[in-house]
Amino acid sequence: MAVNEAGARTNQLRKGDHLRIAAGPGVEHSAGTGLQAVRLRHRALPESDLACIDLATNLLGHHLAAPLIVSAMTGGTQEAAAINDRLARAAAEAGVGMVLGSASALLHDPDLRDTYRVGPRPPLLFGNLGAAQATPERALRVMDLLDADGLSVHLNPLQEALQPEGEPRFTGVLGRIAATAQRLAPVPVVVKEVGFGLDPEDVRRLHEAGVAAIDVAGSGGTNWALIEGRRDMGGPERAEAFADWGVPTRESLMAARSAVPDAVLLASGGLRDGVDVAKCLALGADACGIARSFLVAAQADRAKEALEAVLDQLRIATWLAGAPSTAALGEEHLQ
Questions:
Q1: What average pLDDT does the structure give for the chain?
Q2: Do the beta carbons of residue 296 and residue 224 sit within 8 Å?
Q3: Is residue 1 pLDDT above 70, yes or no?
Q4: What is the CATH number for 239?
Q5: What is the DSSP letter of 26?
Q6: In sequence order, what are the residues at sequence separation of 6 or more whose Cβ sits closer than 8 angstroms to the Cβ of residue 5?
Q7: Cis peptide bond prior to 46, omega within 30° of 0
Q8: Which of 91, 209, 252, 312 could be cross-linked to 122 through a Cys-Cys bond (beta carbons 3.0 to 4.6 Å apart)?
């Protein structure tokens, strides 16, 4: 088997493992997101009609019907094609954004494009590369293959350290991110963690590197260390030490907003419903991402229903907090 064929086959097997394990039990952080301690005000006299609450926003030059993104999940396998088709259709109909799964498999085998780009086009669509693999040249190739509106670069050092096929080589990553952002401009580059949060110093460095937005992707949801531990034939013990590793979503978001008040910030990591989204918007996020609950829904062919439920919850929570729109949510709407 040729090197490229072997690499493509390894990528596809890994993506299949990730889909199966991520949707199953026992792979969430042992500690929460911190959002449980956040409470929105309850205004029993909202003095407006629920139907008048405005969810619309402009994010990175694109109009969205709500400040919500279907976060990166999958691509590169036939199962991924069905999931991406359902997610893309739901996102397009709802008018929200979507980030495709890591394009590493696509770079090995461009014929896998149809496992990523299926279904109608959402109003904001991001391709996706791991930070250890991201270069300006690869980024341009991914953008061309996927005809995406922007690129999401994910930071996953812990996952790479524990992944059987991992590449924990991060020397020079920040410089390559800066070069990629400069090369793709004005096309936006977003940098995100994969669920362990971001230290404010790293947020500042990314902002100074010229990225268009930063997704704090805090801990409290899916734990990719535990997922890789399930894939390790030597046993999961090494990964279990990191069951509560990382910066919880609430803490990571608040620290990031304090560190870079003018940055475009996205919040993800363990968000489960529209109330969590409303809380993060009030804490300073410009938009929010949800992954696992949409993945599980898409596997059951209920992506549209799951997305509609989150948007209904977001509208109701915004109304009850006394805000006229999701864009107006702020500290004054928190207890």
A1: 93
A2: no
A3: no
A4: 3.20.20.70
A5: S
A6: none
A7: no
A8: 91
Q: What is each CA distance from 164 to 189, 231, 232, in whole angstroms?
A: 28, 7, 6
Residue at 34 is within a domain: no
Of the pLDDT bands very low, low, confident and very high (cuts 50, 70, 90), residue 119 is confident
Across 198-222, average pLDDT: 97
Q: Per-residue pLDDT for 86 more than 90?
A: yes
Q: Which two tokens stand for residue 121?
A: 């086009």
Identify which of 138, 133, 126, 140 has the alpha carbon closest to the alpha carbon of residue 157.
133
In a domain? residue 7: yes
Is residue 181 assigned to a domain? yes
pLDDT tens for 207-216 read 999 999 999 9
Tokens standing for residue 184: 């793709």
Q: How far apart, in Å, do the first and last CA atoms of the chain sit?
A: 61
The neighbouring-strand residues paired with 118 are none
Q: What is the mean pLDDT of residues 76-100?
A: 94
Q: Which residue has the tokens 């949800």?
A: 290
Q: By the 8 A CB rule, do 159 and 222 touch?
A: no
Asked whether the predicted pLDDT for residue 235 surpasses 80, the reply is no
The H or E element spanning position 51 is none
pLDDT at 25: 75
Residue 29 lies in a domain: no
> Is residue 75's pLDDT more than 80?
yes
Please state the domain count of the chain. Answer: 1
Mean pLDDT computed over 217-245: 90
Q: Are strands 62-64 and 287-290 parallel, antiparallel or unpaired?
A: unpaired
pTM for the model stands at 0.92
Pairing label, strands 213-215, 265-267: parallel
Element (H, E) at 14: helix 3-22
Enclosing domain of residue 12: 3-21+57-333
